[in-house]
Design brief:
Strand order of the largest sheet: 1-7-6-5-4-2-3
Distance between the termini: 36 Å
Order of helices and strands: EHEHEHEHEEEHEHHEHHHEEHHEH
Organism: Marinobacter suaedae
Radius of gyration: 21 Å
GO molecular function, one term: transaminase activity
Structural class: alpha/beta
Number of helices: 13
Protein name: DegT/DnrJ/EryC1/StrS family aminotransferase
Helix content: 25-40%
Number of strands: 12
Oligomer: single chain
Family: Belongs to the DegT/DnrJ/EryC1 family.
Keywords: Aminotransferase, Pyridoxal phosphate, Transferase
Shape: globular
């Protein structure tokens, strides 16, 4: 089959004129915005602010979930801080708040609350823990848009990313959203940091056309097979510096508009997957309520499922990819086991996160996914379940 539905990534929109009354959807409750070269730099800047708030701590620590992107670690290490991992609540990507409380030591300066594939962390719960202990709370909303920590001012700072595979794809860029009272610390942390102007001229427009073309089914199928491009691989990369970015207002406006105009496929997936979810599979975020946008169904970057077992996940991932569907295991492992991070942490014992990573399957949910693709996905998974998994699902349950 010489075509494939890419696992993630929306097309890059064409810049549009900005209306005079436009403002960023997150520009409420006194939050300010600083644009950076990418989301990792934005997170690194937020950690620098957290450290500056507690200058008396000589060995700062930052708490992260045990399952997540290695860029989280890169942002912490870039500021000379120590990443401390916390295990998850069962069958979720959210941190166990009891374990979080035990992990907070005298050197803790910040907690990073990571929104996972459109499902926000429990910011109210984490905010109460952090406020009681005077710890900086950062919402990593790289995979969630709009960010959820603004409406009730739960988060001290919020991170956005505009790279491939993110809710708003601008082919790069990131943003740090922070409470107004932190402005002096942001200016201090940035100092004389240079700014990179992101042009949307002829070269950028050509790059956009090529980028969008490569995301089509036949080109993506071919590009994925090129080994040195490392398509879809998760690896640790350092964050050597922080650099401001000047983003085009016309492009950012177009990206935000395009996000809200994309079709919402969650209900169709939920309906089609209903039978599987009655037989051992779990659809993540199906009970998620966006309190900041009640009644609003916002697009997600991927649909996330937990299989009844790691074997079931592996069978489904293999069968779907053979059929031209970009299903993935996402990061594929907990942070201590990812390439470049082996031996980085004192402990690799995070049983809940390890179980979660072994059973996670993500399905494409971008604007090029058709109803027929979803029917095909579910048909394949139901057949696999009926053929091979019934006895295993019974044993696991």
């Amino acid at each position: 089959m010489m075509s494939k539905v890419r696992p993630v990534g929306s097309r890059v929109p064409r810049p549009e004129p900005v209306p005079s009354n436009f403002r960023y959807p997150w520009a409420i409750n006194g939050y300010l915005t600083e644009f950076l070269e990418n989301g990792t730099q934005a997170l690194s800047l937020s950690i620098a602010i957290a450290i500056a708030k507690k200058r008396d701590i000589s060995a700062p620590e930052v708490i992260l979930p045990a399952y997540g992107c290695p860029d989280l670690v890169a942002a912490v290490v870039a500021q000379g801080a120590k990443p401390v991992l916390v295990d998850l609540l069962s069958n979720t990507a959210q941190m166990d708040d009891n374990r979080l409380c035990h992990a907070i030591g005298p050197g803790c300066v910040a907690v990073v609350a990571v929104g996972f594939l459109g499902v926000p962390e429990r910011l109210k719960v984490l905010s109460e823990i952090c406020r009681e202990r005077e710890i900086f709370l950062i919402e990593d909303s790289a995979q969630c848009f709009p960010p959820s920590g603004i409406t009730f001012s739960h988060a001290d700072a919020i991170v956005l990313s505009f790279g491939r595979g993110k809710p708003i794809n601008l082919m790069g860029g990131g943003a740090l959203i922070y409470q107004r009272k932190l402005q002096p610390l942001v200016k201090e942390a940035l100092g004389n940091t240079p700014s990179l102007a992101k042009s949307v001229g002829i070269l950028w427009r050509f790059k956009r056309l090529v980028f969008n073309w490569l995301m089509m089914r036949l080109p993506y199928w071919a590009v994925e097979k090129v080994p040195f491009l490392h398509i879809g691989q998760t690896r640790y990369q350092e964050c050597p510096y922080i650099r401001r970015a000047i983003l085009s207002d016309t492009l950012l406006f177009a990206g935000i508009q395009y996000f809200f105009q994309r079709p919402y496929l969650g209900d169709l997936y939920r309906k089609e997957l209903d039978e599987l979810c009655d037989n051992g599979w779990r659809l993540l975020g199906s009970d998620c309520k966006r309190m900041d946008h009640p009644g609003c169904s916002v697009p997600r970057v991927r649909i996330a499922l937990l299989a009844p077992s790691s074997t079931a996940r592996e069978h489904a991932e293999l069968a779907l990819n053979r059929a031209g569907i970009g299903a993935t295991n996402f990061y594929g492992a907990i942070l201590p086991e990812l390439e470049g991070l082996e031996g980085f942490f004192e402990s690799a014992h995070f049983p809940v996160a390890k179980d979660f990573s072994s059973r996670l399957l993500t399905l494409p949910c971008h604007e090029d996914v058709r109803p027929g693709d979803i029917h095909k996905i579910v048909k394949i998974m139901k057949k696999l379940y009926s053929d091979d998994w019934a006895s295993e699902a019974d044993r696991v349950s």
